[in-house]
TrEMBL record:
The chain crosses the membrane at residues 21-45, 65-84, 115-135, 147-169, 238-261, 273-292, 304-321, 327-350, 362-382, 388-409. It comes from the Bacteria. Keywords: Cell membrane, Membrane, Transmembrane, Transmembrane helix, Transport. Residues 237-420 form the Major facilitator superfamily (MFS) profile domain. One of its GO terms (cellular component) is plasma membrane. It is found in: Cell membrane. GO terms for molecular function: transmembrane transporter activity. The keyword Transport applies. It is a multi-pass membrane protein. This is Major facilitator superfamily MFS_1. Gene3D superfamilies: MFS general substrate transporter like domains.
Length: 420
């Protein structure tokens, strides 16, 4: 069993591993993220058993399902954050997991109609929008300010690990579930059980909640709270700058999900093997997050985001000039390390600079903006590559990434060095 409180304050993973509340949150969110990835694989697998509705081609069913899965992040990202500030964080996270678990367990008992599957997918994705900002807002309540960098590094490590492993193990897990628990409901039982397990793990956590005054809560309109968060972010240059850097980082990775398909062909791989490059970048992010978490005290006052942007720009600029697959994968890992030098410090900065009563709204807005920003590179990366070629597009991205990195550091370096 974990000890009740951390016994010392340092800057590495050691203190976090002794913090019972943080460890329960970390393990719980890891199980929940794994459930998210396996749930998505389950939805794709279930389409085989659902006849397409009139006027909709079979291939279009996949696209429609993906839209239903992703559009709640654009529509309800900020609303989820506002709700997080109105209710206890544990209630939101545990409740989200329980609702998603029961909705998943309902699937075998519902009619096998595509529209019902679509509505269920949309509903579960909507509930996820409340879990994400609550999770980010919970970290500063469980971890001392000095250990936030290490905490975010550990979360980033497991987030990327769940992303890499989740989709890979989804199919084998579901196949085993069909074999041992029955093909009619075995898969749904496993995914639903993962969500409920996550809820059970996080239930014992005791949060230091900073609840707003009840009268203020009742008299505040949701739209007013949304505009409050906008005003706060606009007024706080550090938080705004950190969000812009995170947006740039996510936009690069969104574009790379499209561009690595072309990159795979350049190295003689099949198009479906593009995941090798993304996995290498994921491994790099895990390595970078591990370095930051273990040696965060030694890296204090270093221009980590600037170094990260320049590393990413270097990789984007030279990767198409190499003809060695091993070297290209190594460069992708280097890109991932650079990404972690941006993502972990900037997420830590937002947590440090945001008052506890604004955590949910700010993190909800962050998730909202990032999800909207992701759609542009996904839409234009392919057509731009068709027109200009892969090398030119990557060189352009390299220039933009370097420019944003230098601009961001130049604007905030005097104050940024004191807080990261």
């Amino acid at each position: 069993m974990f000890p009740t409180e951390p016994t010392a304050v340092n800057h590495g993973f050691g203190t976090l591993l002794k913090n019972r509340g943080f460890m329960l949150l970390w393990i719980g969110q890891l199980v929940s993220q794994l459930a998210d990835k396996v749930f998505f694989v389950l939805m794709i697998a279930l389409l085989e058993n659902y006849p397409p509705p009139p006027g909709l081609a079979e291939n279009s069913m996949y696209s429609t399902l993906m839209v239903a899965f992703t559009i709640p992040a654009i529509l309800f990202g900020s609303a989820g954050g506002i709700l997080v500030d109105r209710f206890p964080k544990k209630l939101v996270m545990v409740g989200s997991d329980v609702v998603r678990g029961f909705l998943t367990l309902l699937i075998p008992f519902l009619p096998r109609e595509f529209l019902i599957l679509l509505i269920l997918t949309f509903a579960i994705s909507c509930v996820t929008q409340f879990f994400a900002p609550a999770e980010q807002a919970a970290i500063p309540q469980l971890v001392e300010r000095e250990n936030l960098m290490a905490a975010n590094a550990l979360f980033s490590t497991t987030m990327m690990g769940a992303l890499i492993v989740g989709f890979a193990v989804g199919e084998p897990i579901l196949s085993l579930a069909k074999s041992y628990l029955g093909k009619d409901f075995g898969q749904e039982i496993v995914v639903g059980a993962l969500y409920l397990l996550s809820a059970a793990i996080m239930q014992p956590i005791n949060f230091k909640e900073h609840q707003p005054i009840e009268g203020h809560l009742a008299g505040t309109h949701v739209w007013n709270e949304f505009t409050d968060s906008l005003r706060y972010i606009k007024k706080n240059r550090l938080v705004l700058n950190a969000m812009l850097q995170l947006m740039t980082l996510y936009c690069v990775f969104a574009a790379l999900t499209v561009l690595t398909i072309r990159l795979a062909a350049e190295f003689g791989l099949k198009e479906k093997q593009f995941g090798f490059f993304l996995a290498a970048a994921g491994v790099g992010m895990v390595m970078g997050a591990g370095i930051l978490g273990h040696w965060s005290d030694k890296l204090h006052h270093k221009p980590l985001p600037l170094i990260g942007f320049l590393m990413m720009a270097l990789v984007l600029g030279v990767v198409t000039f190499t003809h060695s697959l091993i070297l290209a994968l190594g460069l992708c890992a280097l890109l991932g390390i650079g990404a972690s030098l941006i993502g972990v410090p900037m997420q830590t900065l937002i947590q440090q600079q945001t008052p506890p009563t604004m955590h949910g709204k700010v993190f909800g807005f962050q998730n909202h903006v990032v999800n909207i920003a992701l759609s542009l590179p996904l839409a234009i990366a392919g057509p731009l590559t068709d027109i200009l070629g892969l090398r030119v597009v990557l060189m352009m991205m390299s220039f933009v990434v370097a420019l944003i990195g230098v601009w961001a550091w130049k604007n905030t370096r005097r104050v940024l060095q004191d807080v990261i």
